[in-house]
Amino acid sequence: MTTPVPAAPVMTVRGLVSGYDGSRVVDEVDLTVAAGETVALLGRNGVGKTTLVETVMGLVRPVAGQVLVGADQVDVAGRKPHVVARAGVAIVPQGRRVFAPLTVEENLRVAARKRKGRTGQTWTVDGVYALMPRLAERRTNLGSQLSGGEQQMLAIGRALLGSPDLLLLDEPSDGLAPAVVETVGEVLRDLAGSGMALLVVEQDLRLAFSVADRVVVMNKGRIVHESTTAEFRSDGARARSLLGIG
Hints:
This protein is of the alpha/beta class. 33% of the residues lie in helices and 25% in strands. It has helices spanning 49-56, 81-86, 104-109, 125-131, 133-137, 148-160, 178-193, 205-211, 229-234, 236-243; strands spanning 9-18, 26-34, 38-42, 62-69, 74-75, 89-92, 166-170, 197-201, 214-219, 222-228. A 6-stranded mixed sheet has the order 6-7-8-3-9-10, with helices on both faces. Strands 2-1-4-5 form a 4-stranded antiparallel sheet, covered by helices on one side. Helix 7 (178-193) runs parallel beside helix 8 (205-211).
């Protein structure tokens, strides 16, 4: 029997330390995300999850450590966000942050970049519409005229137009109705199936478990648990202890 060859890493974080005003919010974090893998980053509020993804994206400057991305594992720690984006990383921030005065089409067109992802795909506006037809239906509507779910889809589409190899998503279910959350999950599964790597910060465990291959839990700025999603779900006592639920 042939042993499967592990997928190549798209991101490798080593000894990452970052925070604000001298505080350590992210403390010596090691983390790997492979091509085609979806990792759910879980933990109680305030443990450093958002700071971690923003540090990877270059929005928070690290104090120490490495953020290695791409096929060549180039270190982008401390680089500006546009440099990180050119290396193949995109972020869907919490709260969506779409441009309210612009139409859906304009929001997408301003984000378009001429970059080919590691799978050979270059995302276009038409490709985003094909993935999320509701956006095509609303293409002439302003960002301010969209529902929360439509804004979330627009934020995802905008990130895809950089043709990233790694997509960071910070609370994609935040404020959305259950039916819309399921639609978000379908989109994320489609992206992972195309070979894209996903790191998903999420409080909605149903969504996290439905999309993630692997679960990583943070506490007090550190990674305190890693396992497959199946293993994590099979140990309810540990899950409740780590996440403070139940």
